[in-house]
Write a structure and sequence with these properties.
Elements (H helix, E strand, L loop, with lengths): L6 E6 L5 H17 L7 E4 L11 H9 L4 E6 L16 H13 L8 E6 L7 H13 L4 E3 L3 H15 L21 H16 L3 H14 L2 H13 L3 H16 L8 H16 L3 H12 L7 H20 L3 H18 L2 H18 L2 H15 L6 H16 L3 H17 L3 H17 L3 H8 L1
Parallel strand pairs: 1-2, 1-3, 3-4, 4-5
Helix pairs in contact: 1-5, 2-3, 6-7, 6-8, 7-8, 8-9, 8-10, 9-10, 10-11, 10-12, 11-12, 12-13, 12-14, 13-14, 14-15, 14-16, 15-16, 16-17, 16-18, 17-18, 18-19
Amino acid sequence: MTEARPYTIFLASPSGLEAEREIVRDCVAEFNSAVPSPPVSFEVVGWEQVRGTARRPQEAINELISESHFLIAMLGERWGSEPGSPWGYTSGTEEELFTALLDLGETERPMRDVWVAFLPHDDPAAQILQLRDRLTQNHALLYESIVDTHDLYQKLGERLRSWAPSVGVKVANHLDLRPSSGKDVLRAARLRLRGQKLVELGEPLAGLSSLRDAALIGGPTEHLAYAQQRARSGDLDGAIESTQDAIDYFTTGQGRLHTTLAAEAFAAQAGLFRRQGRDLEAVARLENALTLVRRQDPIALKVRCRILDELGLAYQKLDDLETARDRLQTCLDERTAAGLKVDQAQSHINLARLEVASGGIALAVEHAESAQATLRGLPPSALHANAEVLCAQLKIRTDQHAAGVAHAERALVMNRQIANKRGEAISLLVLAQCYGGAGDAESALMTLI
């Protein structure tokens, strides 16, 4: 029987707490040796696991946090040194804490819980006292006041025992807490996630409003989320403006250029150029955006594949089907190797459309069926609508117009729910084609009115 992998605890602390860090490791090791089979075990990681990098070191540390299930932050006398963050964090430990709190609100991130321990000291840094006061006043996060090393060992053991029964379940938790810079990064993220969920639930106007508020106080991630919904609602110029806001964050020196988020910003704008018919400009920008993604961690892989998607579609518009197929197939291969099943559906849809353009209807049907099989049982999304439109178009191509009606109707409902104006228009056109091909001219006409 394969042994379960341990759940990862990132250990955050400023310098000077080496003895306490060792106590944490010893406590976790004792817990692991005591749990019964099947084992629920933990593994402690920290900045020591991060390899040398030409990037801002804290960014590499943050990526390790985003792959962790829990975070323990310990603070005693020192606050730590300023990490060079554009968000104004005044210590690496503070940035690590807020990175974990942001991940705590993201359903797709593994972060389950954060534990803050204030260690005893006669003269702690002012920032430590201020953080403790904010936690006390806002009731944002439970924390522990540690008396001595024995107390640290005991309280951490209790926390590990409380974590163990719930490690398999991620429940997103949104907290209200500001860092020492005063920038409301958690609220920006909360507004973004709320807006995206409202759109999914069929409240696009409320969702767009929330995304706009998030963009006003947030950073590139919030600007890109706002841009995506603006584009869906038909406001391409506004969407390009929002992607430019994200790009400006990197080009003005606030953020580092050679990062996955920068690549995503440039790629998002290039995708909008493609929709405006500026395909050569889009290809040039996408190929360059791809050079910004050098690493192969999970986040970088997703961004790289999204760029490959856009490149494949742009090359297809330029009638360079061979290069388009190469980019799209590479994307599918990388998503398959990484086990990204939902993303594989997007690749199958793109490849199916390419095969339709090149006359390979049988291959197109295979890709469409693979996409539907992957999406079956998942909540409806823009990707589902895209797959339904594809299936309806293939029914038209194979002279099964009546069978295509149901696919087009489902796509229409989904696109209306998320206020995807372009998708809605395409769904209506395809639905009219299905009705017309099936001999129902009246329904076809009513659909287009």
